[in-house]
Amino acid sequence: MSDNMKDNKKEQMDEQPKKTIREDESLDPVSPYTLMAKLFAHVAKAVVDRFGEEGEEAVREGVRAFGEERGRDIARRAAVRGLPNDIENYLPNYDMGRSELFEYETIYHPCEIEQNFTRCAFGDQWKKDGMEKYGILYCQMIDPAIAKGYNPNFEVEHDKYLLKDGYCHFRFKMKDAKE
């Protein structure tokens, strides 16, 4: 390269604003929620692409088993504190912290908990990546499965989905054990 070309290249580089590692947002740590959402979507897509409807059912079954295990762990967390696995102790002993990546409202009614999520790290990532078809497999199964694992009489009605409706709506209810 000629000296003139080197000088021009150096001048161009000098004109560029210098960024340090700390100023480059692309180097910030990636949220574990983002990583989990991406991993789930890619695994679900591979299973569904290969096995079609049977693959979708296999993914749902895996999410159900995962959710029930989480629910049993939430019940264990309550028990360690000497608390029963009833409706009042579900959210205080929940296993997943909420960050600024989630926006939601929780309303306590006499026999149920209602939640509305307008932002969800998982759903937002699946939308961003165009993976809604696979993310919904998680959304449809996870909360009812967690509730069942927590207490077989605990049910969740999840009638609105961020991936379809723009927000999630949940009603958590404890069935009468005598039913």
Using brief descriptors, characterize the structure shown.
Muramoyl-pentapeptide Carboxypeptidase, domain 2, 52% helix, 4 strands, 179 residues, alpha+beta, 16% strand, 4-stranded antiparallel β-sheet, 5 helices, globular
Brief account:
With 179 residues, the chain is α+β, with helices and mostly antiparallel strands. It is built from 5 helices and 4 strands; from the N terminus they run ααββααβαβ. A 4-stranded antiparallel beta sheet has the order 1-2-4-3.
Please give the structural blueprint.
Layout: H1 3-15, H2 32-80, E1 103-109, E2 112-119, H3 121-128, H4 132-150, E3 154-160, H5 162-165, E4 168-174
Antiparallel strand pairs: 1-2, 2-4, 3-4
Helix pairs in contact: 2-3, 2-4, 3-4
Cα radius of gyration in angstroms: 23 Å
Portion in strands: 15-25%
Task: Give the strand order, joined by hyphens, for the main sheet.
Answer: 1-2-4-3
Percentage of helical residues? 40-55%
Give the overall shape, derived from the CA principal axes. Answer: globular
CATH architecture: 2-Layer Sandwich
The largest β sheet comes out as:
4 strands, antiparallel
- Give unreliable regions as ranges: none
Q: Using DSSP, what is the number of strands?
A: 4
Query: What structural category do the secondary elements indicate?
Result: alpha+beta
Euclidean distance between termini CA atoms: 84 Å
